[in-house]
Design a protein that fits this description.
The protein is globular, with a radius of gyration of 20 Å. Helix content is 31%, strand content 18%. It starts with 6 loop residues before the first strand and ends with a helix. The protein has two domains: 56 residues, Uridine Diphospho-n-acetylenolpyruvylglucosamine Reductase, domain 2 (2-Layer Sandwich), CATH 3.30.43.10; 221 residues, 2-Layer Sandwich (Uridine Diphospho-n-acetylenolpyruvylglucosamine Reductase, domain 3). The longest helix has 24 residues. It is an alpha+beta fold and 326 residues long. The model has no long low-confidence stretch (mean pLDDT 94). A five-stranded antiparallel sheet has the order 4-5-8-6-7, covered by helices on one side. A four-stranded antiparallel sheet has the order 9-10-11-12, with helices on both faces.
Length: 326
């Protein structure tokens, strides 16, 4: 399918890009790698009047080591760079692994980490072509009055968060810088997601993700696992990232792919920091599977997803347990 017609603009600063985005509102979309946006446009899922290309804006690419030992990553940094960077593989191997799990090598060569963080929620109905959807009434995400992901619902959209790098970044305590035409704000990455399928990102009008900051990795162990029906291309049926400080003062258990936002399973985190010996991997896995909120049977029955999450959490805790003992 061909792209629909649109106006292409390439601003030279974040301020200019933000002002255009603010003035055009829903009629404009940002272009980073384009691996998701251009497909949606070809399928007529999206039909923006203006495409704002961010590639001419300086400072939005690259992985940079900070004086405190942390790193900052530009949102236009290619996923393949995150996956293969020596810095990332040495100090943040779970994030490198998550980036290497995205799509295919062709997608990783074009797709950006900022695009992966800002990936729109996915639904087996909404993400079909407009031609395919002609035989059914429009869903809520498309402006209709029903949700095919959860037909029993009376309101809301239950499309799924699908960015593979998100759980690993949250486990690493990542923060992001968001830039508008007049001000900037820095928030923890986990606060970037609203949990709503229709407007899943915590972005005000005209705001753009401009930087990802990850604290130093010393003193923390992070493990990432992803399960998908096929080992390549597919979005995760479920993904899990777990981090534990060596002092056992804090743990994070982050589950992605089963609801409209990544989830931290606080009860399982509390159990994990109480002890890291004995049969704790099985105990934490069972508790995480019981407490996680799975919004719909899309891509797999709910009980099946719970079992996958139990196994992923169990295996991740086993890895952390082994490293702690060493």
């Amino acid at each position: 399918m061909r792209l629909p017609g649109f106006d292409w603009v390439a601003p030279s600063s974040l301020k200019d890009a933000s002002e255009i985005l603010r003035s055009e509102r829903d009629r404009a979309k940002l272009l980073a790698g384009g691996t998701d946006l251009l497909i949606a446009m070809k399928q007529r899922i999206l039909n923006p009047d203006h495409i704002i290309d961010l590639k001419n804006i300086p400072g939005l690419s690259g992985i940079h080591t900070l004086p405190d030992g942390g790193v900052k990553i530009g949102p236009l940094t290619k996923l393949v760079e995150v996956a293969t960077s020596g810095v990332m593989r040495q100090y943040y191997p779970s994030l490198a692994k998550a980036a290497s799990s995205v799509g295919s090598c062709q997608i990783r060569n074009l797709g950006t980490i900022g695009g992966n963080l800002c990936l729109d929620t996915k639904c087996y109905y909404f993400n079909q072509s407009s031609c395919w959807k002609k035989s059914s009434a429009e869903c809520r995400k498309g402006g209709g009055d029903r949700c095919y992901a959860l037909p029993s619902s009376t309101r809301g959209c239950y499309a799924l968060q699908s960015g593979d790098t998100v759980p690993a970044l949250i486990a690493h305590h990542a923060k992001i810088r968001i830039t508008g035409s007049e001000e900037e704000r820095i928030i923890p990455l986990e606060e970037f997601y609203t949990g709503r399928g229709i407007d899943p990102l915590n972005l005000r009008l005209g705001e753009i993700l401009s930087e990802i900051h990850i604290p130093p990795s010393s003193g923390i162990k992070v493990v990432f696992f992803k399960y998908s029906p096929r080992n390549t291309i597919d979005f995760a049926l479920a993904s899990v990232a777990i981090s534990v400080e060596k002092s056992l003062h804090e743990a994070r258990i982050v589950v992605g792919g089963v609801s409209s936002a990544p989830q931290r399973i606080k009860e399982a985190e509390e159990l994990l920091i109480q002890k890291l010996d004995g049969d704790v991997p099985n105990e934490v896995g069972k508790l995480a599977a019981a407490r996680v909120r799975i919004v719909s049977p899309m891509k797999g029955e709910i009980n099946y997803k719970r079992e996958i999450i139990r196994l992923l959490v169990r295996d991740a805790v086993k890895c952390i347990q082994a490293s702690h003992e060493n």
